[in-house]
Amino acid sequence: MDVNTIRFSVFLGVFLIMLLLERLVPRHPLVDSKPRRLAINLAITGLDILAVRLAFGAAAVGAAQFAQEKGWGLLNYWDLPAWFEFLLALVFLDLMIYIQHVVVHMVPFFWRFHVVHHSDLDLDVSSGLRFHPVEILGSMLYKAGLVLLLGPAPLAAMTFEAVLNGMSQFTHSNIRLPAPLDNALRWAFVTPDMHRIHHSVEARETNSNFGFNLSIWDRLLGTYIHDAAKPQPEIVIGVEFFRKPGDVSFLNLMTMPFRDNITQAYTNSPRSRRG
Ligand SMILES: [Zn+2]
Ligand SMILES: [Zn+2]
């Protein structure tokens, strides 16, 4: 099986399992139409895949192959056991994705694009795929750059991509985990309840729980919040500037980063918002 087949199989498997669990054990009541949101988020995903394919192919894995051939990257200089290099690459890339997430919240220019992800009025498995194509291209370049710097084995880069994709679907899904399981998982990993707090309209909560895979970065760097001010099912999801389903139509989402008539939504990035 080639890289793309493996990636697509993992994606589809996780997507369908989460969709089923969302029906069986929903966590949060819906405010927007689910079929409508699924259509929008999947249309954005289609566009993202197209954009990435056209521009780079599998950039991170390609960069890892390139780095290996040329002997580039720190790991190609050090003589560490392969299993340790593999783990180190996964943990390092996860930390760098955490840092990227903090930066796109803090810098108003980047927030213009990231707000598309946060504007979803409900969270479900498809929200994990809802990123503006420009943000997707930017983070592909960022990851490829990191891979060239680090020089992990192509298998490690591929594993990281697959894990990141699968975890993004899991952490955005609208599922209720038993509290003891959620608490136990949260010591090391991001859970749906933990990430839902990040999607709250409350600034203090948006500026917390930035992790994608491991929860340790939020815990170590002081951005971890265990509970939102409201109980989980009552958390208001989204951003305060786009409250109506009509505000977040497919077309509005695509043009959202470039509009000037709603600059309030951009200049008031969550970090500078009061609260
Ligand atoms: Zn965010
Ligand atoms: Zn999110």
Describe the structure.
- This protein is mainly alpha-helical.
- The chain has one domain.
- Helix content is 60%, strand content 0%.
- It contains 13 helices and no strands.
- It starts with a helix and ends in an 8-residue tail after the last helix.
- One zinc ion (ZN) is lined by residues 117, 172, 195, 198-199.
| Mean of residue pLDDT values | 88
Counting structural domains, the number is 1
> What string, H for helix and E for strand, traces the elements in order?
HHHHHHHHHHHHH
**How much β-strand is present in the residues?**
under 5%
Helix content: 55-70%
Keyphrases for this structure?
275 residues, mainly alpha, binds zinc ion
How are the SSEs ordered, and which strands pair?
Blueprint: H1 3-24, H2 34-55, H3 59-70, H4 82-106, H5 108-118, H6 133-150, H7 154-172, H8 179-186, H9 192-198, H10 203-206, H11 216-221, H12 250-255, H13 264-267
Helix pairs in contact: 1-7, 2-6, 3-6, 3-7, 4-5, 4-6, 4-7
Bound molecules: zinc ion (2 copies).
